[in-house]
Amino acid sequence: MTESDSLPLVTNDAVTLGILVLCLGAVFVTSNIKHGFWKRFYQFVPVLLMCYLLPSIFNSLGIISGDQSNIYYVVSRYLLPASLVLLTLSIDLQKIRKLGFKAVVMFLTGTLGILIGGPLAILLVSLVSPETVGGAPPNEIWRGMTTIAGSWIGGGANQAAMYETWQVSEDIFPSMIAVDIIVGNLWTAVLLFMAARAKQLDAKRGADASAIDEVREHVEHFERQHARIPSLNDLMIILAIGLGATGVGHLLADFIAPWISNNYPELKKFSLGSQFFWLVVIATTIGLALSFTKAKLLEGAGASKIGSVFVYILVASIGMKMDITAVVNHWEIFIVGLIWISIHAGLLFLVARLIKAPTFFIAVGSQANVGGAASAPIIASAFHPSLAPVGVLLAVLGYAIGTYAAWLCGILMQMAAPAI
């Protein structure tokens, strides 16, 4: 295949961005039709899932390309930190603290599910089809799966760390990326489905979601009390805070990450040498600091709504990186990935039943691992925008332990893999 044959139909990122935003517009227009086909359609298909799916269809058809476009990089580095600031500046930390220990328990359960799920998936599949999880050096399947572990426990930085640590072959790495993105997003779709039915699921489990409801009601009361039609001045201040804080985040991250890498290289295994890690931490910290100031009143002018717009653009750019045809091309490895995520899910449901954790903690505890800082606040926002910082804070914890846990998972997967 020549280079020109592999190029998408659209190579101009301005046109690609237009397609992504038109997809989002189409989803929001149709989801607000309250009668007929579309009303029935969105009763079963979450809006957020469609925001992922439509761009992935364009990518799979070769119209646009997530691999060759810079949109995801730009959005994740510019709009994601701005959205974290705008979604966080109105948070009430006292209310968040009342969510209790169950949030951390479910997050750690999700981490454990990924840690043991990979080795168990390899072990189970090897009993039936050892060649599926075998492979000769340096193309061993377990070696490639360490990059999935890095992504599912921490994020992209942890995935890159596993890629370098285990010297993963370029022949199998693209397949692992496909498993990571598609299986991870299939699970995200399940979580979104659960989010839409959280009250019913909590009632069946006897889970007490009153603390979450209290946080949500407090924020809604704050919005009603301070809501106003935003002026041009309001909008400019909101953008100045969001994008200004993003600039500060980049400035500090560009200094902190290299300094740690050069002076304390042993900390790189905890992702402390990652600029993206520090960007997320600094943006979240700025947002939390602003929540103690009068900037909190900007929520009445729609700060979180603008932050949510940025998040949905991020969602579309993530969807653009998904190739739905990869399920057909590499279906054997996808079976391993599906078993892996099922073990993760099963352990979450078991522990949630034992401690009567609400659905919110299942969803955010899982996505803080599997999705990281890019999508954990998205899942949290599906419950309410005010809860987005909970997803961010847990995702940051995932970055901190992701490389170490993924490395341990790699050791266990190596032990579980058949010798071929």
Please tag this protein with its features.
420 residues; single chain; mainly alpha
Describe the structure.
The chain has 420 residues and is mainly alpha-helical. 74% of the residues lie in helices and 0% in strands. The protein contains 20 helices and no strands. α10 runs parallel beside α17. The protein starts with a helix and ends with a helix. The mean pLDDT is 83.
- Beta-strand percentage range: under 5%
Q: Which spans have pLDDT < 50 for at least 5 consecutive residues? A: none
Query: How confident is the prediction overall: mean pLDDT?
Result: 83
Quaternary structure type: single chain
Please, how many helices? 20
Could you say which structural class the secondary elements and strand pairing correspond to?
mainly alpha
Instruction: Please outline the major beta sheet.
Output: none
Order of helices and strands: HHHHHHHHHHHHHHHHHHHH
Distance between the termini: 32 Å
Count of beta strands: 0
Shape: globular
Topology:
Blueprint: H1 3-6, H2 13-31, H3 36-44, H4 47-60, H5 71-88, H6 93-97, H7 102-128, H8 141-153, H9 156-165, H10 173-196, H11 198-205, H12 210-226, H13 232-263, H14 275-290, H15 303-319, H16 326-329, H17 331-355, H18 359-370, H19 376-383, H20 388-416
Helix pairs in contact: 2-4, 2-15, 4-15, 5-13, 5-14, 5-15, 7-8, 7-17, 7-18, 7-20, 8-9, 8-10, 8-20, 9-20, 10-17, 10-18, 13-14, 14-20, 17-18, 18-19, 18-20, 19-20
